[in-house]
Every structure is written in C-alpha cells, then in structure tokens.
C-alpha cells in the first residue's frame, strides 16, 4: 500500500501542475428557486424537530454556516446560459452545521458561471436531534426531486451530479454508492425515480467511519446508529455501478486523514469505476474553492475538465472551465469546532 500511496500522490501533484487554468470570476444567478424536500413534514424515522429558528454563524470558522435546520430544502440557481447539467452541493460542517457561506454558495456561483445549474442542499443535522440517517434521506430525496422536475428546471435527468465537502463528502459518497438502498419509505411518484448521481465530486471528504479514520466529529454524530461504521463508510459500498468519482484531498489534512481517500480510490479502481484522485502536498482542511494561486485552488479547474471529459460540460473552447476566487479559508478547527 505504501507504494500505491506514493504513486497516487506523485500522479496527483503532476496533474495539478499541468491542469492549472486561469481564474474566472463567478457570476450570481438572476433567480433562486427553493423547493422543500418533505411537503408533508419530517419523514418517518428522521427523528425530532429542533426548536427555534434556523441559525447562521457569525464568527470564526462558522461564519455563514447554517444550523438548526427544521425545513430541509434545495435552493436552485439558474445560470445565464444553462447547459443542462446540474450539481447537488452538500456543504460540510461535521453534521452540526452546514458550511453554506464558505463552501456551498461560492461553489454554486462558480458552477453557474460555467453554465451548470447549482443546487444547494440544506439538510437535517444529527447534532440538532435528527436521526443519523436523516441527512442521507434528504440527499436521496433531493436527487429524485431534481430528476422529477428536470424538464421544468432545464435539467437533463441523466446529467445530475453531486459535490460534497468534508462531512458532506460522506453524504455525497453514500448517495453515489448506496442508491439501490432506500433510506426512507417511498411516499410518492418522485420516490420511484433513481437517486443515483451521474457523477460525484468529493472534496477533502470524510469517507470512512472505521478505524483508524473514526476520529472525526462526523463519526461522533453518527455513532448513535449501531451500524454506522459500515452503513456510512463509502468504500465498503463501491460496486461496478458506482458513477464516476473525482476526489481532491490535501496530504497534510489535520482533520480527515488522507488515507481514507486513498482507500476509496483503491476500492473504485478495483471495481473498474472511472475515478480521478488529486492529493495536494499542502492545503489542510476546509479550503472550499481554494484561494487563487494556491495549489488546492486548482481543484475547480481540474474538476471542470474532468466532467467535461465525461460529457457533462461542453468541450474545451466553448466553456472556460476555470477556478473562481473564493473567500479566505476557514481558520483551523479545534477538536470541538471541527468541520469534518
């Protein structure tokens, strides 16, 4: 495994250097549409609702982060020139908050500038009292809603991907691997549709809840479910039907050990699933889009080139698949304030 890890890191660094592209400013959408995931109230088995209003962080690494979500929903941004591809964005936050301001919104603006329809997921948080399965229910339902309403939204139902950051990477990864399993009892015609993403981007993701990677807050929030270690460890559920996966991680990530991403890539490779892994030498954790000029700031351009290669973006030349300036990286998280 040591030789495999060294090979992965060397390849990723080389690709990052050769694939770096010019920055392109993000452009905001003219309209944002909000759709509730559960019109009849919380789904059975999702747990109890938190009391009080939704909270938005105003200090430290939690600026712009949302918690106390009682009404899970998706916010759909309409690009000026949509190309039919959509991406469900799952912000991280250790399952006690969702990094909307630092991760989800900047990513949505960047994708909209490429012509991709970005969809931000606001999901139930186990730290607020919801069942560990609740965020996975929300992501699965969101994918089905996008397929059900694809025509009205200008979305090709076979061009719907997912991007997850940190703990959101676990939600995205499980959505991409366990789509054959219903995390909730189907309630309507929408739930008859596939929840399988057509591609997945996992950015500094939590992908394993098993030793030695079970030290994250994500694991602590999910541990109340007896089978969480196996149910939500992504690499255990990879099959040949798993969609193409893109992974970006920093070798010096102090929160989520890069070894979990290497293990996931190995599982994908063994199942012959198209996959691309970029391990940056430095970058830490929680970099969002990444600051222009930093190595981790190359990942948006690498990802855009990757989905273009899979036919989900127009060919190079018609779209400038560049990285976009984002906010300053969040401060390093402490053990009690980690976003993983």
What would you say this structure looks like, in words?
Helix 8 links the parallel strand 9 (245-250) and strand 10 (275-280). The protein has an 8-stranded mixed sheet with strand order 1-4-6-5-7-8-9-10, with helices on both faces. Helix content is 28%, strand content 14%. Helix 3 (134-148) crosses helix 5. The chain has one domain (2-309): Alpha/Beta hydrolase fold, catalytic domain (Rossmann fold, 3-Layer(aba) Sandwich), CATH 3.40.50.1820. The longest helix has 18 residues, at 2-19. The protein is globular, with a radius of gyration of 18 Å. It has 9 helices and 10 strands. The chain has 340 residues and is of the alpha/beta class. It starts with a helix and ends in a 31-residue tail after the last helix.
